[in-house]
Amino acid sequence: MRGNHYSRAHVKYNPDHDEAFWDFSWDDMARDDLPSMIYYILNQTKQTQIGYVGHSQGTMIGFAEFGNLSNLVQNNVSLYVALAPVAHVGHIKSPIKYLSTTSIMKDLELYWHILFGRNEFLPSSEIVTWLATFGCEQIKYDRLICENIFLVLFGPEKKNLNETRVPVYAAHEPAGTSVKNMIHFAQGVQTNTFQAYDYGSPEKNQLHYNQTTPPAYAIRPMKVPTAIFSGGEDWLADPDDVSFILDNIQSLVYQKFIPDYNHVDFIWAMDANQFVYADLLNVMEKYHPPT
C-alpha cells in the first residue's frame, strides 16, 4: 500500500521532507494505485485477467474501484476475494473509534493534525498506550488482552495467534500511511458511509468533485465474481458492517464466516491454511484456473 515501508519511492517527492507526498487517502489507492498494479501484473505476465485477493484496506479499494462500472479495469479481474472486508465502518468496536467521536466531528481534520501532524501517520507510543488503556477501560477486557496492542485494536480472540511471533509482526506493523488516509477512515466511522474524502466544506468539495458533498461509492453495481471471508471477533470489519456488504453484492459466489476470527487472523492465524486458504484456493481454481 502507498506510504508503507515498501512503498515510499516517488519520482518527484521525498516522503521524509515533502508534505505533498502524503496528500493521499484510500481514494487515490483505489483510483490510481490499484489499476496501475493490475495493469503492471498483466503486462509482465502477458495474461488478460488476474485474481485479486485483498485484506482490510485492500478490500476497501477493491469495492470502491470495482463498483464503478466506468472503470474498465474490472474487466481484467476474474475473481475478487475479500478477507476481513471493509466498506462501511460505523459499527467498529476497535478503540480506534475513539479518535472519531461525534464530539470532534466538526473539527476532525484539525484534531488529527494536532495529534499527528499532516504527513506520515506514525502514532507515538504514548498515544497508542493511551488508546489501548482507554479502550480496555471502556470495554473491560482482561489485562493479558489489553497488554497486546494487536488484540486491542483488531479483536480480542487470541487463541489463533502464535504469540511467540508477535515481536516479528510488531517489527512490520503498523507499516505506515498518511494522516489524510486515517482522517478518511475516521470520517467513515463518524458517518457510517462509504464515500470519497470529505474536504470539510461545500466549497472545497465543489472544487475537488464538482459537487458540494463527497461522491458515494456503490457496491451493488459490481459485477466481478466476489468471495467474502469474515470473522465474528473482528473489531474493524464488524459483522454488522459486513452484513451491509453481503446484502449489496449481486456477484457473490462464495461466503464464509469464521466465528472466532479477528481482523488479523486471516493472515496470521495458525490455522488460516485450513480455514481460509484451502477454500480460497478452491474458489480461485474455479473462477481463475491456472493457465
TrEMBL record:
What range does the record give for the signal peptide?
Answer: none
**Domain of life of the native organism:** Eukaryota
Specify the AB hydrolase-1 domain's residue ranges. 1-268
Gene3D superfamilies membership: alpha/beta hydrolase
Which SUPFAM superfamilies does this one have? alpha/beta-Hydrolases
- What biological processes does GO assign it? lipid catabolic process
GO molecular function terms attached to this record: hydrolase activity
Q: Which residues are listed as membrane-spanning?
A: none
- Which UniProt keywords are present, listed alphabetically? Glycoprotein, Hydrolase, Lipid degradation, Lipid metabolism, Signal
Which PANTHER family does this chain map to?
LYSOSOMAL ACID LIPASE-RELATED
Similarity comment text for this entry: Belongs to the AB hydrolase superfamily. Lipase family.
Name of the protein in question: AB hydrolase-1 domain-containing protein
Q: Which organism is this entry from?
A: Rotaria magnacalcarata
